[in-house]
Amino acid sequence: MAAPPTRPRAPRWRDSPERAELRSLYEQADARLQGWTCACSRDRGAAEAHCCHFAVTGREPYPTAVELEEVRHALRASPPAKGPRRLPLVELGPCPLLANDGRCSIYASRPLGCRTFFCDDAGGPAGSRARLPRDALGAIARRIADLSARFSPRDPHPRPLTRALARLARPGGRD
């Protein structure tokens, strides 16, 4: 008797087409933001930088399901310095992905909201009076939302980063 046909195995996240598409969209956003920075990350020490200190800004990024899969992948590859594969649960404080030196522990995999998350004193490329390319970034955000809907049709929606990270921190946690 012949063995039943096997379903093709889905590629691991590292090799998935969804990850490749997400990384391409991140590269497009980074290219649009080339030269943009905020004074707190450029001029002050990490202790004073407040873009990633949600209690200071009163805001936090809202990554989609597909972006959280990239975060999950980055955490498995390189756990944050604050503890092996465990994130501190936070109320609205500093981002739990910040390493002890105040830098993002998953910088290459950070969600779009983190890439476009600037303080009010953000500035364009040196010497320019450029405006933040909001329309282009909005188009990229819509493409990420579409990708997330294909990746996780049941719950593709954005959610607060701290809530999503708290769920990931639980044993077997998924958001």
Q: Any descriptors?
A:
175 residues, mainly alpha, two-stranded antiparallel sheet, 2 strands
Topology:
Layout: H1 17-32, E1 37-38, H2 39-43, H3 54-57, H4 65-77, H5 112-115, E2 122-123, H6 134-151, H7 161-169
Antiparallel strand pairs: 1-2
Q: Percent helix among the residues?
A: 25-40%
Main pleated-sheet profile: 2 strands, antiparallel
**Mean of pLDDT:** 80
Kindly provide the radius of gyration, computed on alpha-carbon positions and rounded to a whole number of angstroms: 18 Å
Number of helices: 7
Structural class: mainly alpha
Counted beta strands: 2
Instruction: Based on Cα principal axes, name the global outline.
Output: globular
The termini sit apart by 42 Å
Low-confidence stretches: 83-90
The domain tally reads: 1
Element-by-element helix/strand order? HEHHHHEHH
Estimated share of beta-strand residues: under 5%
